[in-house]
Amino acid sequence: MADTGAKSRMQVLVVGSGGREHAITLKLVQSPKVDAVWCYPGNAGMAQAARIPKLDSSDANTLAEFAEGQGIDLTIVGPEGYLAEGIVDVFRSRGLCIVGPSQSAARIESSKVFAKGLMEKYGIPTAAYRVFSEYQEAKGYIEEMGAPIVIKADGLAAGKGVVVAEDVETALEAVRVTLSGQRVGEAGRRIVVEEFMEGQEVSILALYDGKTCVPLVPSQDHKAVGDGDQGPNTGGMGAYSPVPVVDEALQREICQSILLPTLEALHKEGVTYTGVLYAGLMLTKAGPKVVEFNCRFGDPETQALMPRLRTDLAEVLLAVGEGRLASLPPLEWDPRACVSVIAASQGYPGPHDTGFPIVGLDAVEKMDDVFVYHGATALRGDEIVTAGGRVLSISALGDDIQGARDRAYEAIAKLDFENMYYRKDIAWRALDQGKVD
Ligand SMILES: Nc1ncnc2c1ncn2[C@@H]1O[C@H](COP(=O)(O)OP(=O)(O)O)[C@@H](O)[C@H]1O
Ligand SMILES: [Mg+2]
Fold it and tell me: Global pTM?
């Protein structure tokens, strides 16, 4: 085939099983370039929208074998675990096209020590920090720095590796349980102790094909489980886009002072990054600073971005995989706002019951400009039931953030399952600007 543009009869594989992957899947299904979307492991929503192959295991080799046998043209990986374990290397060694960083490049997320070292060496703005593996040494540093202070496990910890300590005692306890392996196992044998940064957080995701960096529109997550950002951190309870505080000038600054220097720094270290680079930023008084990098799409940010994306996602991601981003026109976005609210199981991020039937999905799916993305759902017979903490993402478009939020809450009110819980204040920072800054 003369390969000057996107293939016309593509088969795509989406790896993962959350709201993020369902949002990506629904976008791909709409693409005229796409013949079939396959998802693995998938969820009840992805099973309705796409095809779930029967595989013996979900390891990278099994997935690559499937992709080869099925003639998959493009694979998109949601969860960081697969990337940190080297799924991209496995696929590429077989000549398969996949969007994501190599195992070595994924260290930008899978090792906070690596990421901090890179930022320090190349002058990328981030919190001051030190690395420790001995309690006594960390203790000396924390006592010298004082609180608030932040303790982070080096490795992947599914959102459980960071403690923002309000006082020195809490910080020392976090150091003790993290280094001992009690908190997050081996991921915590080394820790980063870093300066507390004050400000609003924002997520800037960018596509990178090894040469060209294309930032997506800004979005903002809500990590805490409770209204007013109270309670423990979760995988994210809702998101919205755009983020009014991140105007075009600030987006340019973030690109120039953070995204591009980071990609170049990796390059200088002999690592070519490709895929999605997600910069978690703190907008401090001294300018944007990096909280952390992720090496993949964000969840729930993706659920607030996909409804706004007008460009064909399949075409764009194939261009990332094939190193042709420069040849594409700029991404087109719906100027309307999107708010996405997570319907979770009460108790999450702690223990919670599952297996409850979800009612009202049909009514919500009929609403215009409303998108239901499944996260932890499963099929029981022909019933859709809850299967984990973050069950559904309800995204809505509106003329402005208030309109989108009203619509999202109107939709979620039509849904029910036994222990359904959701935050009532998603996008509060955007709607409450005056009082926050
Ligand atoms: N230096 C910091 N100052 C203030 N808050 C922080 C800092 N580092 C992390 N946090 C808070 O902790 C959350 C989790 O930290 P992060 O580095 O993103 O780790 P992970 O997402 O791997 O759990 C951040 O989203 C932010 O709310
Ligand atoms: Mg984070």
Answer: 0.96
Take atom 14 of ligand 1 and give the residue whose Cα is closest: 162
Listed range (81-85, 117-121, 301-305, 433-437) with the worst mean pLDDT:
433-437
Q: How confident is the model at residue 114 (pLDDT cuts 50, 70, 90)?
A: very high
Take residue 132 and report the two structure tokens written for it.
Answer: 């420790």
Map tokens 């709607």 to a residue: 431
Domain spans, the chain: 11-102, 134-189
Residue 39: in which H helix or E strand, if any?
A: strand 34-41
User: What's the 249 CA to ligand 1 centre distance in angstroms?
Assistant: 25
CATH no. for 134-189: 3.30.1490.20
The DSSP-derived string for 208-256 is E-SS-EEEPPPBEE--EEEGGGEEEE-S-SEEEE--TTS-HHHHHHHII
Q: 29, 437, 405: which is closest to 238 by C-alpha?
A: 405
Q: Confidence band (pLDDT; 50, 70, 90) for 4?
A: very low
Which residues have CB under 8 Å from 149's CB, separation 6+?
A: 142, 165, 168, 171, 193, 194, 195, 196
Is the C-beta atom of 204 inside 6 A of ligand 1?
no
Which run of H or E residues covers position 277? strand 275-284
CATH topology of domain 11-102: Rossmann fold (3.40.50)
Mean pLDDT for the chain? Answer: 96
Q: How far is the CA of 280 from the centre of ligand 2 (A)?
A: 6
Residue reference for tokens 């955007």: 430
pLDDT number for residue 7: 53
Helices (H) and strands (E) in the chain, counts: 17, 22
Work out the average pLDDT over 370-391. Answer: 97
Of the listed ligands, the closest to the CA of 116 is: 1
* Averaged pLDDT for residues 242-268: 98
Arithmetic mean of pLDDT, 171-189:
96
Closest C-alpha to 338, from 297, 368, 390, 303: 303
CB 122 within 8 A of CB 261: yes
Q: Does ligand 1 lie within 6 Å of residue 164's CB atom?
A: yes
DSSP character for 122? H
Q: What is residue 25's predicted lDDT score, i.e. its pLDDT? A: 98
Structure tokens at 172: 């020392």
d(C-alpha 300, C-alpha 342), whole Å: 8
DSSP characters for 78-115? Answer: --HHHHHTTHHHHHHHTT--EES--TTTTHHHH-HHHH
Residue 412 has pLDDT above 60, yes or no: yes
